[in-house]
Amino acid sequence: MNEIKAKLHAPQTKGHVSVAKLTNWWYVACPSGDLKKGPIKRTICGVPMVLFRNKKGDIAALLDRCPHRNVPLSLGAVTKTGQLQCAYHGWEFDTDGGCTKVPCLVGDPDHKGRRVPRFPVREQDGYIWVYAEADTEPEREPFKLPDVDGKYTRVDQWFEVEGSVHAVAENALDVPHTAYLHKGLFRGVGDTTKIQARVERWEDWVECEYIGEQRPEGVVGRMLSPSGGEIKHWDRFFMPSIAQVEYQLGTENHILVNSFITPVTDFITRLYATILFKVRIPGWVLEPVVKPAAMRIFQQDADILKIQTEHIQRFGGEQYVSTDLDLLGPHIWRLMRQAERGDPGPKEYPVVKEIELEV
Amino acid sequence: MNEIKAKLHAPQTKGHVSVAKLTNWWYVACPSGDLKKGPIKRTICGVPMVLFRNKKGDIAALLDRCPHRNVPLSLGAVTKTGQLQCAYHGWEFDTDGGCTKVPCLVGDPDHKGRRVPRFPVREQDGYIWVYAEADTEPEREPFKLPDVDGKYTRVDQWFEVEGSVHAVAENALDVPHTAYLHKGLFRGVGDTTKIQARVERWEDWVECEYIGEQRPEGVVGRMLSPSGGEIKHWDRFFMPSIAQVEYQLGTENHILVNSFITPVTDFITRLYATILFKVRIPGWVLEPVVKPAAMRIFQQDADILKIQTEHIQRFGGEQYVSTDLDLLGPHIWRLMRQAERGDPGPKEYPVVKEIELEV
Amino acid sequence: MNEIKAKLHAPQTKGHVSVAKLTNWWYVACPSGDLKKGPIKRTICGVPMVLFRNKKGDIAALLDRCPHRNVPLSLGAVTKTGQLQCAYHGWEFDTDGGCTKVPCLVGDPDHKGRRVPRFPVREQDGYIWVYAEADTEPEREPFKLPDVDGKYTRVDQWFEVEGSVHAVAENALDVPHTAYLHKGLFRGVGDTTKIQARVERWEDWVECEYIGEQRPEGVVGRMLSPSGGEIKHWDRFFMPSIAQVEYQLGTENHILVNSFITPVTDFITRLYATILFKVRIPGWVLEPVVKPAAMRIFQQDADILKIQTEHIQRFGGEQYVSTDLDLLGPHIWRLMRQAERGDPGPKEYPVVKEIELEV
Prior knowledge:
Radius of gyration of chain A: 23 Å
CATH superfamily of the largest domain in chain A: Naphthalene 1,2-dioxygenase Alpha Subunit, Chain A, domain 1
Structural class of chain A: alpha+beta
CATH topology of the largest domain in chain A: Naphthalene 1,2-dioxygenase Alpha Subunit, Chain A, domain 1
Order of helices and strands of chain A: EEEEEEEEEEEEHHEEHEEEEHHE
Strand order of the largest sheet of chain A: 12-18-17-16-15-14-13-19
Oligomer: homotrimer
Largest sheet of chain A: 8 strands, antiparallel
Mean pLDDT of chain A: 93
Number of strands of chain A: 19
């Protein structure tokens, strides 16, 4: 069929989009509790996967396609003996992806051609992590949350966002947009002061430290630190897709927001947020105020990311103009591209940059 | 416009899909009763057609596009004189596709450039059949239902299914899936016995005979043959797209399920089922039990075929692994491909294969 | 990802569609009253634009994309100082497209890379016109409505139509379809008389004059001229996309229907109709009859154009067969193609053609 090419369209860019194919890495597939026996399906790096647990509790992540007639294995069931059974013809597979039964067949069901590709899995920090390269030995282990004592509260929440990993991570770690997109919720637009930001990029992570930052205005800020004063604030990105924001207000307030960003496809991500915090005010006092505000902030970010994504596609790619204020976005993209290309990067680390901002 | 190609996607196959372009063949367009005067529209082999009857009752199937400004002729009306009139500017056409009127035009309306391509049609066995190649003499006649006596009941039902002709035909003739996809309805999963299957492939059809098969378990089976016992069972495929299942239980029970599968587009088909049966139990007793069961079976098949089709597209094609149990599917594809390529096939017929199954 | 190409599809044309890229021309963006302060968004020739007014009332039409992170500027707001502020990071732009503020940035916001492309605008005849080529000096001025005295009534109405500019303009100026598509509303199908049509094509417009035409039958016709009699009737097309129908019935009835057709994308247009009329019967008497009839005619045209467009896409392009009765359509396309190609056209104007019709 002839496709009729549009003559009238938005001015087209050179087609660049900040999407990297990084399959030799770990991604969160789901919270541990979401996988009882299974099967459940997840898409990671565009690859449909089926997850299930066998009788011993071992977890498997297999390619979600029956080798026989190509229907999703996730339509099936886990048998009493812990095998994953296809819904169409009843073929069964174990956690290694091997075929253990072909109903009606006279003879051995096991056969090389009937194997299903298997992805490495780990259960750690309350999440099931999947390594996005099948039938391989992982080069590394998943990102580990820091050990915290009993004074910390942990809150988990996940969101599906229509944006690339890069766009979502940049947004999660960006300061200037908070005064506009989240006007009144996070930081206000009023008198400004100059502060310093120092960026250090390492081989597989990058950190920005803010020096001289005052307690942010707005509802959230007032709750966190009623007495005001300087705060310590770091924004970090860890390869391949973890955004971390850390706030320290004196010794009694400490907040660590971890966003595990899983690429579903190029422009759809799942953001699994785990917030660890210890604050002056008890959690049960904070929650009714902080949770609605946080949800609203996340929703505003999700909305703008969706529109940004659609607009980038309409123009056939990104055409970004960055300033010094885009402290982490360009570094995040450099890290992703280096890893994708197998590029060793600069000879010496850290790469350091200091800038001044008016906030 | 630049199309942004996805970087993150399912592992891609070599792009094969079991779809053949077989236009020198007859397909059911609709039951006879669906075409009064018309016009009605149908898509066969991807081609939009308009069907209508003239005053004498002659049927025409024309390309559903007015040569003037390319709107569908099926939007129009059949005039009192039996001409098909376009809804936009009122051009009229006869059953041969010739232009008989151009309103406002001074002069002869007939003109080579104003002809509409015409497809051969037949009315037979309660169906209107269309030959999918325009302006040509058919190489053969449509498939003929066997003549049966008055003891037989005929039931007709049609379904639209999101699957290729090959996938739908293979499904219609496949035995092993019935125990899983139609669990409890058709045959159960219990003790198994070994039976034989003998496949004979001819130039334009293929048959599988099952030897030693017992009455199937489940509701349908129990109704058909309360006394149990061996049954005779043949599955057949006739080119280009007819699936036939025949059951014989003694001399008093005989069931012939004919599925006329019309390719609408590559992955959409219409299945026109005509069931001829003569059974021990009167039809009016059977109907309240058999019809809901049959409809449920068809719906389960339609559901899995839709999901299979979507999954195949996601992976960029099929990657099937067949076993000996896939008795007819590979033969059906061979027949379709031979016909599509004009390949004469093997020198001697029938091609025979015998296998053993546990059912 | 492999795209699975359809094997079964409508017979494909050579891919021609009557769509021209004519950006060095003026198009109606919206009625003046639709733009208060703004911002509002419009798509013209496929290009997303944002329109706003500054404090002085100056209008700007900018490319609707923030140079920073590519979100639509139309999501933002016009500030108290009359700047267009982006919703994401608060960047501000003036009516020239220059960047006047980057929040948090220490230093001058103005920078060549931060400019937004600007489209010429005019406010005239109650419409905002935009020139579809950015950052350029227009080669001409927008089409001007004739000055009419106080005896004329003006009615404005706009419609979104799924059809190319060519298809919409041809339809707006076509006579033969009115007896079929608008049966009973505009002109009937009864006894016919022969009339003459004389077409004159100039460099950037084409006119058809009908000679000997009688008052049309039907509701609208009877209202306009109860006494019947010959009418004067001209259909005109002005480049790039203006269709004009003029009727004169004696000295007391004069109707001028102007359709300003704005290409949104290849196959979506907005038709801004401005009707100027002076009739024997007072406007308030006519309105309850004429308006519903006019709206119904427009809806019937919009419906057939949408179906025509979909059908053309299904066949991979147009395959039109024109007759002498297609008085303006082929000329309109010639004018559009000439302008698109920069082709000077014939040496002498006007190009004249006379034909006879039976109406």
